[in-house]
Amino acid sequence: MGNLRRVPVGIVGASGYGGVQLVRLLMDHPEVEVVYLGGESSAGKPFGELYPHLAHAVNLPVEEVDPEIIGDRTEVVFLSLPNGLACEMTPKLLEKKCKVLDLSADYRFSDLTTYTTWYGKQRNDNATAATAVYGLPELYRSRIAEAQLIGCPGCYPTASLLALSPLLKQGLIVPETAIVDAKSGTSGGGRQAKINFLLAEADNSLGAYGVVRHRHTPEIEQICSDLAGHEVMIQFTPHLIPMVRGILATVYATLRDPGLVRDDLITIFRAFYRNSPWVRICETGEYPQTKWACGSNLCYIGLEVDPRTGRVIVMSAIDNLIKGQAGQAIQCMNIMMGWDETLGLPKLGFYP
Amino acid sequence: MGNLRRVPVGIVGASGYGGVQLVRLLMDHPEVEVVYLGGESSAGKPFGELYPHLAHAVNLPVEEVDPEIIGDRTEVVFLSLPNGLACEMTPKLLEKKCKVLDLSADYRFSDLTTYTTWYGKQRNDNATAATAVYGLPELYRSRIAEAQLIGCPGCYPTASLLALSPLLKQGLIVPETAIVDAKSGTSGGGRQAKINFLLAEADNSLGAYGVVRHRHTPEIEQICSDLAGHEVMIQFTPHLIPMVRGILATVYATLRDPGLVRDDLITIFRAFYRNSPWVRICETGEYPQTKWACGSNLCYIGLEVDPRTGRVIVMSAIDNLIKGQAGQAIQCMNIMMGWDETLGLPKLGFYP
Amino acid sequence: MGNLRRVPVGIVGASGYGGVQLVRLLMDHPEVEVVYLGGESSAGKPFGELYPHLAHAVNLPVEEVDPEIIGDRTEVVFLSLPNGLACEMTPKLLEKKCKVLDLSADYRFSDLTTYTTWYGKQRNDNATAATAVYGLPELYRSRIAEAQLIGCPGCYPTASLLALSPLLKQGLIVPETAIVDAKSGTSGGGRQAKINFLLAEADNSLGAYGVVRHRHTPEIEQICSDLAGHEVMIQFTPHLIPMVRGILATVYATLRDPGLVRDDLITIFRAFYRNSPWVRICETGEYPQTKWACGSNLCYIGLEVDPRTGRVIVMSAIDNLIKGQAGQAIQCMNIMMGWDETLGLPKLGFYP
Amino acid sequence: MGNLRRVPVGIVGASGYGGVQLVRLLMDHPEVEVVYLGGESSAGKPFGELYPHLAHAVNLPVEEVDPEIIGDRTEVVFLSLPNGLACEMTPKLLEKKCKVLDLSADYRFSDLTTYTTWYGKQRNDNATAATAVYGLPELYRSRIAEAQLIGCPGCYPTASLLALSPLLKQGLIVPETAIVDAKSGTSGGGRQAKINFLLAEADNSLGAYGVVRHRHTPEIEQICSDLAGHEVMIQFTPHLIPMVRGILATVYATLRDPGLVRDDLITIFRAFYRNSPWVRICETGEYPQTKWACGSNLCYIGLEVDPRTGRVIVMSAIDNLIKGQAGQAIQCMNIMMGWDETLGLPKLGFYP
């Protein structure tokens, strides 16, 4: 649309749901041009063979993954790979002066000990990891602007942290009382053929998984601890919901000051997110539906206080594949590139 | 099947989902015969007009609701009506020597003050209400056996209480830390034409409702208080899930004894429900899916302990229309009549 | 973005699904500004009360419907009303020099006798109706460009006619053998509280409706007759599918020339739609999924020939609320205004 | 229920959806006892590991498949295996005097040439195949009663043939005009991990597959030809619907006698199925919903005649896993054993 030059970007891991979201969203982004798609198992295939409905719009093949070549052809690289692969190629990409946005867990932890404990992989790239910034712009906007490497948050942590941050940052809750009961559509499981993600199994059913040991727990805790100023433990329980997209995190915590009422908290949340165009605080008595957020990069947050129990209940809804994944990575890129944070991202959810 | 005489039963409010479940289940019950169906708006229609797929099996019309006539023709009456109607006709039915199983909230509260506070209806039938027994057989089996009037539990309280009872009864948790995050299919909303229950609105979406003020809260609290031996407040949050049937209650509570491990609790739950044929405690590491329970009167319960936070997490899954409503009422009837508790109830869930 | 002046547009009937789609899509359209929203039952409410997720983006109230005022304030008006209402206000709007795009059936029929037979309403605005153009750009692009009044096609006719047109126009099939078996998501039923559209009823179920008498039949036949050059009767059967959005029309017809093979037809279809940016003909052996189209204004068409039976089978997939309704109306507006046909319309479907 | 002795039955291929349906239904059957479960990949596991919700009810392990041993321990064997395996073990089982009900395609064709053409496997057990009876009781009840080997119909053929049979048998339609547009839930694809059956892919989407070449085509044609008395070709198109269970077949055909009206056909269908307890013909103007049939062994059939086009439209709805698979096999067993055809089979569908 009249740009003299678009920034060349690449996507590694283009065949999964994160990849196809990135492709779709970046095609509409006014400042970039997707010039490279990479993949392991799908290398050699035209992208349109993986997603036929995009064949007319995306003319690129999926190529072998060679960081040297990617570095030569792109300025920004999105890595949408299984955990443990991004850290193998990122040092090379950084050396080639690429800006790197990793959607896996590899660069979410400043302390690789935690990573190794929960993800089971030994790593020795502490120096690189130490330069990574956690890509939640609502908390770390200015650091993201300076970074060359972003560890993009997980989908659950995004919803959980946007609900918890104002409370922890302002010291409004007793941190160890915080419980996150999260619910996700099945696209969060990726484009992998697993029995329990079949429609015949997952539709019209509901269950928890990864109880007390889901890997997003330490990720949430790391940021909560940073906000609280001391180490915080969070109870996190994810559930699989019979729907394609969307996450709702229902967060419970005990208020330090039992005199706080719902509208106080709504005011506090609105102030906290005043400069965050992608967060919307609901009106009094309004609770977010995941469908509101689906198709957009928005996070909707609703609040309630129970005067009987002294707890605050925060509900946050996002599209797990946009604000919870690809959209947030693009939001980070916008900030890194000095563009408007909302550039090229869908602003209005689909409904119904 | 060889019975000399079947017990004549009636269903008032046959046109709703509770009604059709009762009809369907009681048709297969070996000891009873459905001789009366009653309804307000549907009076005068053949039942098969409301549910065409049952037209070949159910030859009864829906009749006007006249307690005098119902009392003459039936020995057991199921009332499946909106809240506030059962209490109008129950005294008459009891006078006529009927056994009454009320599926509404009218007889769930021993203390009508609580009922009036949460349901907004003034009542003066304290004497009748005082004779009602709360129809959760796993807790009140022997009292149900003696009762003439049963206040059948709500769907959410059934799932919540089956998860909480062993913990409270044995004093294993700090009661005021208990949080119930419940998730229900939309059939819980009944066969009423409301915008937010349309498939186009509710499918592929998810949200909380009635936060901090859902009417099932005092019902859960009443029984929890009874079990704990003192007044208990519970945090209860229901969510609407894009599926037809099923409830999952995810219950969080802090253990009094941090030394308890998961397998201890599994042992304790199994002992608690030893004589309860409709409750199944899952194996270690197994979490219930609502689909397991759907189509049966079973409640599946899974357990986890978080040694990091000292909390127990209990997950209970039921079919909201069977164990959560019509099936449980029939289970109560079986007990009241001196029959086997499992008689005529579906034992194996549908899958997939 | 940088226009000196945007064209003021109005939407009458903003509260329904057609309305909210128009609002959402027109908010992103670079050449127009939505300046008026009208409704009957919702008049006086802020639009954000009807659709809370859009409250932050749409600041307009829903106003009373007064054609005089609408005519003064807008240049283009979209009417998204129940059948029989548009024809009451359209003459006035045309008099005020508005361009009118009616999404109801009121102006789809050049012959009001057919309208009256199938829709039951007597009308005497033959003169106005005669000036209306059927808003299917792929067939009537040049007439749309000249028109002041557009009768936008129904959702089923859009999918059906895009599948049938090349066959009829080229005389490739025996017209009276044509059968359209159509399947639609439940959003096609609108935002109305009806029992059979409840999730609890419609989910995990499937059925036909309106068999041999659905009102879209004469609409399809009128255009087919126009294409064939003689009167054509079509067998049309719609089905309700347990999903929110999307229509698939599966079309069967006997080929005149049994020697035609699948790839001949793919070539013919591609030629027919060469200048139609919103129609995509699938590759050999590829059949469209409705999800491919959802979220975009695209129609995907797949083709197969059965050499055993001599029939062609055409499958066309659209988003019923976009290409089947609001998007197509905007496409028509683009043409009427002399803008690019694709302006402001979503080009890439959502997936998954 | 007081039987002196139950008939020992075995299920080979117990781990799939056909298997689990058989297990579940046969557990409730009053005349049989499941004594053997066999499987390839799941051999050695307790059945409850495959389907944890049934662990409390089914105490059997999945065993290796050895026809010699199966023959010694059982009198009736259900084979629920991928195509091409049943024919390997059936001769041995027959030799051991077992009654065999094969749910695969292996014994559906009297002419193995057709089988080989469509299924690609060379076979030389013509003699055995010639003794097999096609297990559609509504057509071949008396032959099933005499048979030792049953080739149980596919799910689509069951729905299609129950809709077509009265028309073909009575010569009411022009056979070559018959088109079957069929729609199935995704459980028809079995418990196999395939990308296109993932909830994230299949939910909220819809598409045709196997167009003009689905293997159920020759199966339908074989029986149609038998009924018509001459070779008949049928147009058959299956579609995948975003639901778990259920098939709807919408059948179109031109009537020979244009004077026939809808109620004539309803009368004819009712007469045809007079002695078939599992087929229900809908009232005038009533069209079956798949949900009516789900959970039962019933087939609901609705009828319409289009006086404008001279076509009859027949809609038949079944539960693909019960009447379309496991239930029908049990119905056949009942007939083979001289029991009531309805024994042990669910008579009332689930709703909602």
What does this structure look like?
The structure is a homotetramer of 352-residue chains. The first copy, chain A, has 352 residues and is an alpha/beta fold. Chain A is built from 13 helices and 14 strands. The first copy, chain A, has helices at 17-27, 47-50, 67-73, 86-95, 112-119, 126-131, 137-146, 155-169, 199-202, 216-228, 262-272, 290-293, 322-336; strands at 7-12, 32-38, 62-63, 76-79, 99-102, 133-134, 149-151, 179-185, 207-208, 235-241, 247-254, 279-281, 299-306, 311-318. In chain A, α7 runs parallel beside α13 (322-336). The first copy, chain A, is globular and about 60 Å long. Chain A starts with 6 loop residues before the first strand and ends in a 16-residue tail after the last helix. Chains in contact: A-B, A-C, A-D, B-C, B-D, C-D. The interface between A and B is large, with 46 and 46 residues. Chains A, B, C, D: The active site is at residue 155. Chains A, B, C, D: This is N-acetyl-gamma-glutamyl-phosphate reductase. Chains A, B, C, D: Keywords: Amino-acid biosynthesis, Arginine biosynthesis, Cytoplasm, NADP, Oxidoreductase. Chains A, B, C, D: It comes from Hassallia byssoidea VB512170.
